[in-house]
Design a protein that fits this description.
Largest sheet: 6 strands, mixed
Number of helices: 19
Radius of gyration: 28 Å
Helix content: 25-40%
Amino acid sequence: MMMYTVRSMNTVSRKGVAALKNNSSKPYWNWRTSNNKNNNMRTVTLLLSSPQQQMFFATLPTDIDPDNGGNSTNKIEDTTKSKSEDERNRVTTTKFRKSSSPQDSLPVTFADISRAQVAIRDGIKRTTCEKSFFLSELIGSNVYLKTENQQFTGSFKERGARNAILSLITGEGGKEFKEHSGCIAASAGNHALAMAYHGKELGVNVTVVMPTVAPLAKVDKCKRFGARVIIHGAHIGEAKEYAETLVEKEGLAYVNGYDDPPILAGAGTMGIEIVDQVPDLDVVVVPVGGAGLIAGLACAIKTLKPDAKVIGVEPEFCPSYINALKAGKPVFTETTPTLADGLAVPLVGSHAFEVARHYVDECVTTTEKEIAIAVLRLIENEKMVVEGGGSSGLAALLPGGKLDRADLKGKNIVIPLCGGNIDTTVLGRVMDRGMAADHRLVRFTTTVSDRAGGIANFTKILAEVGASIKDIYHERAWLFTNVDQTQIKVVCELQGKEHAVRVKDALCNAGYKLQWLEMQDTKT
């Protein structure tokens, strides 16, 4: 994106008219409400939809009215031709589509996102957004992965964190903020890491309050970045309450990880990159937690490419954004522990909700089973480690998911992989669940002879059909049948659903009565 700062009407007209001659798209005027008291001027923004996505900022007299006789028209001076002094004083009238007032009143606008992109570009990695051959073939669409898990701290949260800190530095009292007070945030993971790292980079004191359930690896990283880490509260809600008590006591600035306008604007910069990297995109599928990411990203996408769809995905164990849409405002949602722990936000942000519901087309849920399979698919096919929340967008698109539907087949779909910060122990459990959901890890119980050769005969059948025993457990005391029999619980590694059917049929044909245990999708 290219930006020009100009102060005269002639300058912006020269650039604007030249751009219009080389561009078939209609431009958009975004009128700012602020006026200059000294010279009766106001700031306007002209966005031209072009391959370079050029934006022009200018100050124009307040008597230039964007509404002429009820029509959306603006007067600009065409200075590209040689004219006399009198002719140059005349203005030509050119029609423009004016941005709607609801957009102007939103907590975050595209202008905020554009400023954020310029502010953070030197400190944030421009992540790749490349087509996945294997996932495209599996889903039946052209799937592009925006790899935000490749940011230095492993998530998209860096965008908003850096923009928020820079906003505090350059705002009123910025010198005092940077040299003495600093900022504070409550987070169990990605936001804390992002704030700690960029606070260190920008020379700002950062305090992070983390609940007792925060992974030790993330706590240690925050300390290594130089942040003051306070462990308090059983969950993020209690951590936040304690952090807010320190705001007044120590004079710190609290940064909400999913609702502060600078956070939303920083997250929205990803949308600008996506449009630049995949200009012919049709759909963006975005994980939703507190709604900060989808709010900023949708604002950017819909401004630059209005025909594109933005679809949110929430874990079914915490559908807080969907509940907010039903109620017309953010409402508290009961949550259940989920593999997408980063999305388990019981109350979406009020600012984020206002922006998101204006731009987002729809929001669906995804199951624990689908999330586990998505993590597994990314590891096996893309060689990427992505946390449960970050892979939720893919989860909904996989076969059987809510977005596995005809209207999305053949479309160009972008999926932000929002984060890759997953504990090794959790990753192991998620992979096991993914393999179980994929019918590559099966569990069943049966009864065999407790005499010599009983187990051997059973395992011989498994070997013949290519099943690999991962675990086997004997149970004698609670089996009330013949004393010469024993119950065994078996876990086998298989090749998939069809292989599981062959194993099951082979054992049943041999006379074994099986209790085949399937992975459950519902809450218990």
